[in-house]
Amino acid sequence: MQEKEISQAVIRRMPRYYRYLGELLEDGVERISSNDLSRRMNVTASQIRQDLNNFGGFGQQGYGYNVKYLYEEIGKILGLNQQHNIIVIGVGNLGQALANYVKFEKLGFVIIGLFDVNPALEGMSVRGIKVRMLDELETFCAEHRVDIATLTMPKEKADAIANQLVDLGIHAIWNFAHVDLKLIDRDVVVENVHLSDSLMQLSYNIVKNRSARENDN
Amino acid sequence: MQEKEISQAVIRRMPRYYRYLGELLEDGVERISSNDLSRRMNVTASQIRQDLNNFGGFGQQGYGYNVKYLYEEIGKILGLNQQHNIIVIGVGNLGQALANYVKFEKLGFVIIGLFDVNPALEGMSVRGIKVRMLDELETFCAEHRVDIATLTMPKEKADAIANQLVDLGIHAIWNFAHVDLKLIDRDVVVENVHLSDSLMQLSYNIVKNRSARENDN
DNA sequence: TAGATTGTTAATCGATTAACAATC
DNA sequence: TAGATTGTTAATCGATTAACAATC
Q1: A195 close to B174: Cβ distance less than 8 angstroms
Q2: What are the residues with a C-beta under 7 Å from any atom of nucleic chain C?
Q3: Are B99 and B110 in contact (CB under 8 A)?
Q4: Does B94 touch chain A (CB under 8 A)?
Q5: What element of type H or E holds A114?
Q6: Closest-CA residue in chain B for A101?
Q7: If I label A35, which of A41, A167, B5, B48 is the partner at 20 to 30 A Cα–Cα?
Q8: Is the pLDDT reported for residue A33 higher than 60?
Q9: How far apart are the two ends of chain A, measured CA to CA in Å?
């Protein structure tokens, strides 16, 4: 039974709802209407109701949404009710930064392994997580459930390792390498974080904003 | 004279074109048709031509696009023909990782200052860039042109510092703090990198993919 | 019950794709 | 010239917004 596909545009907005609801929850707010939330989040109330109704009716007419309930439901939708074991391939600065980022654990994302090819890193630990050499990857994957592999190594090696990871049974890649992974006909979901792309988009907007400012004078 | 607004959807795709053209250039490819490029990039040729024609006609009928020329033109569109001076506020793991990331410099993004509130970091340097205490920010901004401020500090402090930065004349923020900055009526462009949002989107797709796989059996 | 607010259908808007005349 | 491929207009598709009946 094929459920209707929900667009990634909607999915991209869900973590933001989750964040705002989490804040409301912390502030002790019990209920919220789509209208109230829309004002806080700077989106239309209509969009909020449409988005949520992709997943079912979480609200109640005349009342609005129960903050705690909605927060938990969105958490479930996003898969935050289960633990995701993560390994990081490439223990450079970024890899270490991610390994040190404890906030992820609260969301259920737990880093269980760090891998690199650099022998100088062997024996080192980051936040209690041992750095292993890449040739131990196969054994490690056999012995542990790995849900997500994070790629923070140079882009030249990314394709080969990504394919190896899929061979080892990993179905999700969080890719920080600055390439589009070539994973042809492979059963894997990929989420890209391209920091320089983000910087370039910012740069475009800087130039545009700057010339708008100059035209104002 | 108001030029027609180009949608952020288009802008988001430009860095990717830039990347592919850079690769073609490295491979010594001289010309490319929208059709060839579309096959490589997995987008429609129509979209490529539409996107590019937002900025002008870079191609030639019967020939296609000159790779080098188009690469450079997109670079200009993205503002990569000028230097962007960056400061980083928050020299934790992520801040240090960004400071160490030399690739940005090739694109014209140069980190010129690092700031933190932690006295333990005072006197430290990352890749030759001195870590300064946050109270030196005002003097620093008076003495240097700062184009972009990167926020890699805890989210609690982000709003206050962001507003201070705008007061000091900064018009662009690259925000890694996990909040939507409250910058009401301020002349500033913001680019958010919300790593946990990205992870949650991945997580959603993992769960979806997993259940699709199970249904196949 | 009256007022509030959802869930959902319909209308609008914008983005993507298709088609083709222009032209190299 | 004939073939190729752009630039651009028109058609389609999808996403967002508006409207309102259902209902708490």
Answers
A1: no
A2: A 32-35, 45-46, 49-50, 52-53, 57-65; B 7, 9-10, 43-44, 46-47, 49-50, 60-63
A3: no
A4: yes
A5: strand A109-116
A6: B93
A7: B5
A8: yes
A9: 61
Q: Does B186 touch chain A (CB under 8 A)?
A: no
Written as six digits, the tokens of A24 are 């409301």
Interatomic CA distance for residues A177 and B116, integer angstroms: 28
What amino acid occupies position A122?
Answer: E
Instruction: Please name the residues between 33 and 92 in chain A that touch chain B, using a CB distance below 8 Å.
Output: 41, 77-80, 82, 84, 92
Amino acid at A163: N
Query: Which of A93, A202, A215 has the CB atom closest to B174's CB atom?
Result: A202
d(CA B21, CA A88): 29
pLDDT at residue A2, rounded to an integer: 43
pLDDT in tens, B2-25: 457 899 999 999 999 999 999 999
CA distance A32 to B52: 44
Q: Which of A80, A147, A172 sits opposite B200 (nearest CB)?
A: A80
The amino acid at residue A213 is: R
Answer whether A1 touches B (CB < 8 Å): yes
Mean pLDDT of B175-186: 95
CA A3 – CA B193 distance, rounded (Å): 31
Whether B59 has a pLDDT exceeding 50, the answer reads yes
Of 3.40.50.300, 1.10.12.10, 1.10.10.10, 2.30.30.230, the CATH number of A8-77 is 1.10.10.10
The Cα-based distances of A157 to A97, A181, B13 in angstroms read 20, 10, 24
Among residues A57, A64, A79, which one has the least CA distance to residue A11?
A79
- Give the homologous superfamily in CATH for domain A84-196: NAD(P)-binding Rossmann-like Domain (3.40.50.720)
A-to-B residue pairs, Cβ atoms closer than 8 angstroms: 172
Please report, for chain B, the start and end positions of each structural domain, with discontinuous segments joined by +: 8-77, 84-196
**Tokens 């206050």 belong to residue:** B160
Q: Is residue A17 scored above 80 in pLDDT?
A: yes
Q: Output the six-digit token pair for B48.
A: 């490529």
CA–CA separation, B17 vs B11, rounded Å?
Answer: 10
**Would you call A103 and B174 a contact, using CB atoms and an 8 Å cutoff?**
no
CA B199 from centroid of its chain's CA atoms = 18
d(CA B178, CA A91): 23
User: pLDDT-derived band of residue B163, with 50, 70 and 90 as boundaries?
Assistant: very high
Nearest CA among B165, B198, B203 for reference residue B86: B165
Identical fold, A8-77 and A84-196: no
